[in-house]
Design goal:
Layout: E1 11-12, E2 17-18, E3 23-24, E4 29-30, E5 34-36, E6 41-42, E7 47-48, E8 52-54, E9 59-60, E10 65-68, E11 81-84, E12 89-90, E13 95-97, E14 106-109, E15 114-115, E16 120-121, E17 126-127, E18 132-133, E19 138-139, E20 144-145, E21 150-151, E22 156-157, E23 162-163, E24 168-169, E25 184-185, H1 198-203, H2 208-222, H3 228-238, H4 243-254
Parallel strand pairs: 1-4, 2-5, 3-6, 4-7, 5-8, 6-9, 7-10, 8-11, 9-12, 10-13, 11-14, 12-15, 13-16, 14-17, 15-18, 16-19, 17-20, 18-21, 19-22, 20-23, 21-24, 24-25
Length: 261
């Protein structure tokens, strides 16, 4: 860093306006017509494009791209912008698009939001304050996310949907309608266990008797009419000489969230 907080290997456009204490690390890029308020930090390789205005204490981590052109086929270079409040965190590979003319020309983000790696905010979105976007949470265009909402990992939100205040969206949930405030929304889970990974174990050097013992143990666990505790007790007595089954039993007994069956 130089004495001004701008690393000599950073790229800062001539039209950018930076508060005196803004820090821009090596190889970070501040584009044309970007305004950065006091205390903002761009880590190495972060990219902030404009027109865009940012309040104070926003942090941009490596390889995020904030304020880029909208990902919309109708966009042809019109002047649109991004407006962001204070104290937001943009982690690695987060992308945020500016607005489009047809959507009002502006994307807005409030204050105190946390965008984990690979989250995306599409064009013309309205994000409130103190939201949490877990890894890979994705907003299409024109989405509204109200204050204190949580979007789980890898959860896409369809364009024009609204996410109400304090709503919680579980991981891998596809949102195609409005989510009411204060609610929990999650897709059904149908994850099942299909027994022993026999081919994989054979490739790792397990001989036939070891695999057979595990297959019998899993039949007790998954296909008998015993509950998990009863199946574990039966495995412990039936396969007392098998270190692999002992390991399986210890793992099940230590489970705090249950096991996939």
């Amino acid at each position: 860093m130089s004495s001004t907080g701008i690393h000599p290997h950073a790229v800062v456009a001539a039209s950018a306006r930076l508060a005196p204490d803004v820090r821009v690390a090596a190889f970070a890029v501040v584009g044309e017509h970007v305004e950065l308020g006091p205390g903002c930090v761009l880590h190495s390789h972060a990219v902030v494009q404009g027109p865009a205005r940012f309040g104070k204490d926003n942090v941009f981590h490596p390889f995020c791209s904030v304020g880029g052109d909208p990902q919309d086929i109708t966009f042809h270079g019109e002047r649109t912008e991004l407006v962001v409040g204070d104290g937001n965190i943009f982690r690695e590979y987060v992308t945020v698009s500016r607005g489009t003319k047809k959507g009002g020309g502006i994307t807005t983000i409030g204050s105190g939001n946390f965008f984990l790696a690979y989250a995306h905010v599409g064009h013309d979105c309205r994000v409130g304050d103190h939201t949490l976007f877990v890894n890979g949470a994705t907003l299409a265009g024109h989405v509204t996310v109200e204050d204190f909402a949580t979007l789980g990992a890898f959860s896409p939100v369809h364009q024009f949907c609204r996410i109400g205040r304090y709503a919680y969206i579980g991981a891998c949930t596809v949102i195609t309608q409005d989510v009411p405030p204060f609610s929990r929304v999650v897709t059904e889970r149908e994850t099942k266990s299909y027994g022993v990974n026999a081919i994989g174990l054979e490739r790792k050097g397990f001989d036939a008797p070891r695999i057979a013992a595990l297959q019998r143990a899993f039949r007790l666990l998954l296909r008998s009419k015993l509950n998990t505790s009863q199946a574990v007790a039966e495995m412990r007595s039936t396969f007392a000489g098998s270190p692999d089954v002992d390991e399986l039993v210890r793992f099940i007994e230590a489970a705090e969230r249950g096991i996939v069956k």
